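User: Sequence recovery, please. Input:
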């Protein structure tokens, strides 16, 4: 019997675009659909090793466990639904009841810059017009007016969907695009981890958590000048939130990996970053952070919110020269007070009530 099973799995593994992870996911999904009454179907779960996206997954799952304990949660990656991997899309269309809830992964997903998340949003919205839906906090940005209008048309066609925008400009855009939906400005869900950890180990040096992609705004030459200037007097370290670890392995060890990362952020007197989650991880670690801008509004508008809630912890530098001055100012000051769990108390402890009232 085991030999037959090995042969079957070996054959399935050779099918293009399909993995053992997909096989196990479909088996688990079938079992959940057969055995569950109240279900949350969570679309767009990440399949890569970006720690910011995985932190969202961790916190969304944590939110469900805390506030929707009576529901069975079914994870569905965008790729599996759009490709109908082993019939996943058909299974869901046949077995999701009208009373089941649909949630979408938060992040930079309502956009036309790349990836398949927005395509998945539109497909699911069309396929399940009878279900209540929640699009968790998004950055919204469209380069193409045609794509913008298509997304607006599909979203506005749904009679029972709540859209959450995670910054001021995304909220303004969402209000214009989704004029038939309830739209709220809501913080990124990873902010619920701020105030949950305390660290008392000695701190020294500056941590640089910088991106190396098309979203970078400050030139590589200016970054080099910035780091060289600071590293003359301070010990400097580098860290990235894109990890070299298989996504499946990362999911299995997600909590310890996240907590180890937060602990790393807590070892420094200052963080310099142009990553959105570099800011949040610094606030979780209670470490002051100097922020460099990116080409879009995701980071700068996020800073506005964090500065209001945690004054004296987050500094926005328009360029590398100002960043140097801000780092020097941070290093000359004592560590700020412990960051309170503001976003958990004021927003996510109240989100289920908001959902029930809106849908």
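Assistant: Recovered sequence (359 residues):
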């Amino acid at each position: 019997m085991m030999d037959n099973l090995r042969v079957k799995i070996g054959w399935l593994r050779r099918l293009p675009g399909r993995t053992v992870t997909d096989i196990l996911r479909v088996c688990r999904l079938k079992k959940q659909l057969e055995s569950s009454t109240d279900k949350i179907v969570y679309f767009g779960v990440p399949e890569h090793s970006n720690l910011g996206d995985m932190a969202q997954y961790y916190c969304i799952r944590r939110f469900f466990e805390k506030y929707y304990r009576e529901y069975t949660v079914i994870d569905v990656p965008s790729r599996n639904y759009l490709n109908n991997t082993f019939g996943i899309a058909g299974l869901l269309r046949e077995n999701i009841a009208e009373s089941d809830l649909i949630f979408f992964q938060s992040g930079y997903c309502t956009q036309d810059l790349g990836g398949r998340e927005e395509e998945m949003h539109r497909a699911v919205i069309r396929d399940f017009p009878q279900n209540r839906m929640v699009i968790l906090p998004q950055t919204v940005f469209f380069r193409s007016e045609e794509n913008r209008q298509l997304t607006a048309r599909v979203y506005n066609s749904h009679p029972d969907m709540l859209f959450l925008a995670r910054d001021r400009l995304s909220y303004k855009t969402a209000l214009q695009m989704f004029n038939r939906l309830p739209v709220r400005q809501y913080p990124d869900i990873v902010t619920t981890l701020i105030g949950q950890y305390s660290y008392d180990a000695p701190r020294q040096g500056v941590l640089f958590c910088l991106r190396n992609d098309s979203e970078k705004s400050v030139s590589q030459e200016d970054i080099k000048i910035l780091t060289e200037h600071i590293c003359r007097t301070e010990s400097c370290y580098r860290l990235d939130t894109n990890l070299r670890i298989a996504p499946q392995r990362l999911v299995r060890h997600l909590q310890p990996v996240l907590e180890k990362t937060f602990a790393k952020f807590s070892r420094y007197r200052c963080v310099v970053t142009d990553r959105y989650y570099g800011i949040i991880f610094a606030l979780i670690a209670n470490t002051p952070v100097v922020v460099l801008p990116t080409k879009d509004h995701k980071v700068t508008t996020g800073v506005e919110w964090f500065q209001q809630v945690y004054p004296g912890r987050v500094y926005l530098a328009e360029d590398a020269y100002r960043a140097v001055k801000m780092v020097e100012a941070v290093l000359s000051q004592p560590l700020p007070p412990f960051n309170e769990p503001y976003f958990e108390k004021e927003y996510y402890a109240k989100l289920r009530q908001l959902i029930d009232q809106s849908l």
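The radius of gyration is 22 Å.
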